[in-house]
Amino acid sequence: MGQLLLSILFVIYLIMGYKTPDSIAAWVDTMWGKVIVAAVALMLFANANPVLGVLGLIVAYEFIVRSSHMIGASAIASAYPTEEYKWSPFSQENQFPMTLEQEVVKNMTPMVNSEPNGPATFKPILDPQYDAAPIHAGL
Fold it and tell me: For FRET with 67, which of 51, 93, 129, 135 sits at 20 to 30 Å CA-CA?
């Protein structure tokens, strides 16, 4: 009779969607609170009717989720805006038309690193070194 009454209470809790009181939600939203709720659900699963055990696991999961939505990280995440929302006004303000400098750079002839006419026909000459040591002398 007790198991039948408990299963009816579990079904009512799941269907009606009762909110968890803040004092209980704050306790359940801790690590130890979640462990204790899960342990009670597993003990119920091990010691009661299998249908009541499965229902108890579902109720324990819902109980933890509802408690975290009121107090925990998901409540904090829903209270603060996302990065996309915070930066959305700036992206609208940063839509500029193409400037003259951008057009000039875009229309410049590309710099080419290859030598189209073969090797260079000149040999570079260094300025006087004024008694400076050669670069490779210390190596």
Answer: 51
Which residue intervals of 48-82 are DSSP H helices? Answer: 50-70, 73-79
Residues of the chain where predicted confidence (pLDDT) is lower than 50: none
Cβ neighbours around 101 below 10 Å, total: 8
**Percent helix, strand and coil across the chain, each to the nearest 5:** 65, 0, 35
Q: Which H/E stretch holds residue 9? A: helix 2-16
Domain ranges within the chain, ordered by starting residue: 19-78
Q: Report the C-alpha gap between 39 and 57 in whole angstroms.
A: 10
Q: Which helix (H) or strand (E) holds 103?
A: helix 100-107
Task: Express as a percent the part of the chain with pLDDT over 70.
Answer: 83
pLDDT at 113: 59
Assigned token pair, 37: 């709720």
Q: Is 38 exposed, middle or buried (0-12, 13-18, 19+ CB in 10 A)?
A: middle
Contact 19, 67 (CB under 8 A): no
